[in-house]
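Budget justification aside, the reviewers requested a transparent look at the raw inputs and outputs of the sequence design task funded under Objective 1. We therefore reproduce one unedited record. The lines immediately below are the C-alpha cells for a 206-residue chain.
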C-alpha cells in the first residue's frame, strides 16, 4: 500500500514537471494536460507495451491518469495566481519530489522486468524506461534534447538503481528490504548529482 501511494505521488510529481514545462513553452490548456499526462504515465506505458503487457497498467488502474490530469489542472489554476518568487520556489521543490519518483519508478520498472522473466539487461532496461520514458517523450514533444541524456546523472542514477535491484535479488535478500534500499539509493544518488552537478564526461572534439 505504501509503495502504491509513493507510486501515485511519483506520477503526480512527474506530471507536474511536464505541466510546468508546458507553461514555459507557452502551450495552451490542452497542451498542458497532454504534457502532464505523457510525463506522468509515459514511462510505464512504454514499459508495458515493450513487455507485451497490454492494456498498460495506467489503463487498468486509472488513478495514475487521474493523478496526471490533476497535476495539469492544478497547474492551469494556480500558476497564473502565484507571484514570480513563489513560482520559482515551487520549481526548486519539484526536483526533490522528482528524485523520489525516480527511485520509486526505477524499483517498480526493474521489479516488473524480473517478474516477466527478463535477464539482467532486460531488468536494467525496464527500470530505466519506466523512470525516464515519460521525461524523454515530454522533451521530444517540445523539441528539446531529452534532459535525461545530457545532464545531472538522471538516467545513470536509474541504471545504477536497477543494477542494485538485480544484485540484491540475486543474493536473495529479504523482499521488504529490496525496495527500501533501491529507492533510497537511487533517490540519494540523484539528489547528490543535483547538488554537486555530477554528470558523465562529454567527449571533447579537437
Amino acid at each position: 500500500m505504501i509503495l502504491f501511494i509513493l507510486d501515485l505521488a511519483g506520477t503526480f510529481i512527474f506530471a507536474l514537471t511536464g505541466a510546468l514545462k508546458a507553461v514555459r513553452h507557452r502551450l495552451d490548456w490542452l497542451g498542458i494536460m497532454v504534457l502532464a499526462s505523457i510525463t506522468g504515465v509515459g514511462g510505464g506505458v512504454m514499459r508495458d507495451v515493450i513487455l507485451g503487457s497490454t492494456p498498460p497498467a495506467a489503463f487498468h488502474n486509472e488513478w495514475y491518469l487521474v493523478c496526471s490530469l490533476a497535476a495539469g489542472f492544478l497547474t492551469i489554476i494556480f500558476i497564473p495566481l502565484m507571484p514570480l518568487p513563489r513560482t520559482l520556489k515551487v520549481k526548486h521543490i519539484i526536483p526533490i519530489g522528482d528524485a523520489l519518483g525516480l527511485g520509486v519508478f526505477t524499483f517498480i520498472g526493474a521489479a516488473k522486468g524480473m517478474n516477466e522473466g527478463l535477464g539482467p539487461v532486460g531488468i536494467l532496461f525496464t527500470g530505466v524506461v519506466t523512470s525516464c520514458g515519460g521525461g524523454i517523450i515530454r522533451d521530444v514533444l517540445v523539441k528539446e534534447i531529452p534532459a535525461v541524456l545530457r545532464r545531472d546523472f538522471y538516467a545513470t542514477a536509474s541504471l545504477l538503481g536497477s543494477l542494485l535491484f538485480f544484485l540484491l535479488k540475486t543474493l536473495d535478500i529479504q523482499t521488504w528490504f529490496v525496495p527500501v534500499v533501491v529507492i533510497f539509493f537511487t533517490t540519494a544518488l540523484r539528489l547528490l548529482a543535483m547538488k554537486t552537478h555530477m554528470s558523465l564526461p562529454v567527449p571533447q572534439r579537437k
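Residues 84-115 form the longest helix (32 residues). The radius of gyration is 17 Å. Computational costs for records of this kind are itemized in the attached budget.
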